Amino acid sequence: MSNPGLLKIGGATEEMMSRLTPEFTIHELSEISDLDAWAREHGASVEAVMTNGHDGVPPAVMAALPNLKAVSGYGVGYDAVDTDACVARGIKVSHTPNVLNGEVANTTLLLLLAGLRNFRHDEAWARSGDWEAKGNAPLSNSPDGKTIGILGLGRIGQEIADRLSVFNPTIVYHTRTKKDVPYTYYADLVEMAKACDVLVCITPGGPSTSKIVNKDVLEALGPKGMLINVSRGSVVDEDALIAALDSGKLGLAGLDVFEREPHIPDALKASDRTVLLPHVGSATHETRAAMGALTVDNLLQWKADGSLKTPVPECAHL
Q1: Where is the D-isomer specific 2-hydroxyacid dehydrogenase catalytic domain (predicted)?
Q2: Which residues are catalytic, by number?
Q3: What SS3 class is residue 177?
Q4: Average pLDDT for the chain
Q5: Which of 116, 129, 305 is nearest to 224 (CA)?
Q6: pLDDT at 1
Q7: In sequence order, what are the beta bridge partners of 92?
Q8: Which of 10, 26, 251, 263 could bridge across to 52 with cysteines, CB 3.0–4.6 Å?
Q9: What is the pLDDT of residue 189?
Q10: Which domains can be identified in the chain, with CATH numbers?
């Protein structure tokens, strides 16, 4: 009996491929020049897709796979996969939660410290010789004792809160529903922003959170406030963010994600009020290896017994 077909969307490591190649007949989306022609010949044989949080599964690709049964996503975010369409067709979808929680939390702390402690300015001051020529760099701000709001207190949000404890902060949070946690809950995001020194975005992307951090939220944070986004670029109204930074109505922004990646608006790159990273929240050798292993584990478990190790919530009942 031949191996089931697997459509690979995006990259994969040699280790991942070494585990998948004996178990699946692998097709590469990047090598398909004519999707319709390929689908007529191979589409019916493909039962699984391996993808990532950025590429997801384009609607035309999903439509070309009439016997698709499983989608294994590399990454915790899966808003680029139409889970409603998958559920309607009985397609199971997985992602890679938990294994990247710590690294994304580390990246949050990196952005926090880099922003409050003027890392960009002070590193340039040291390298340029300005310290010797002009004297000491200006004072910066301590992360200690701040009120830090977390937008989206899921698994990664909780890990962020745990790691922030070294700074003795006051943690507050906003989610759709109140949780059984020892932090103050705000049902209104604007009201929470008014109370915060720092707002950390770690909520899922998708239509329900699109531009949830808007002009009102940003201005509520205020001229001494800092926004950190390690979730999805769609969560923040980028035009409103640029306007708030330019006008001084928002103090700082530490961003790992952007609305139209890999494009970053020139205004954000030019601003001395920003710390920018190229979506590297989980980008360490160790964490990416764990994510890759779990992506493959989901596919192998599905092949073995039809279940997924870490299904997304929408598909957990399938």
Answers
A1: 43-312
A2: 232, 261, 279
A3: coil
A4: 97
A5: 116
A6: 59
A7: 70
A8: 10
A9: 98
A10: 5-97+286-315 (3.40.50.720), 100-276 (3.40.50.720)
Strand, helix or coil for residue 292: helix
Residue with tokens 């031949």: 2
DSSP 208-247: GGTT-B-HHHHHHH-TT-EEEE-S-GGGB-HHHHHHHHHH
Question: 29-61, pLDDT tens digit by residue?
Answer: 999 999 999 999 999 999 999 999 999 999 999
User: Which H helix or E strand runs over 184?
Assistant: strand 184-185
pTM of the full structure: 0.92
Token pair for 155? 């698994």
Note whether 70 and 47 are within 8 A (CB).
Answer: yes
- Residue 262 confidence (pLDDT) above 70: yes
Strand order in 184-185's β-sheet?
Answer: 184-185, 170-174, 147-151, 198-201, 226-229, 252-255, 274-276
Which residue(s) pair with 147 in the sheet? Answer: 170
Please choose, from the candidates 174, 162, 140, 79, the residue with its C-alpha nearest in 3D space to the C-alpha of residue 275: 140
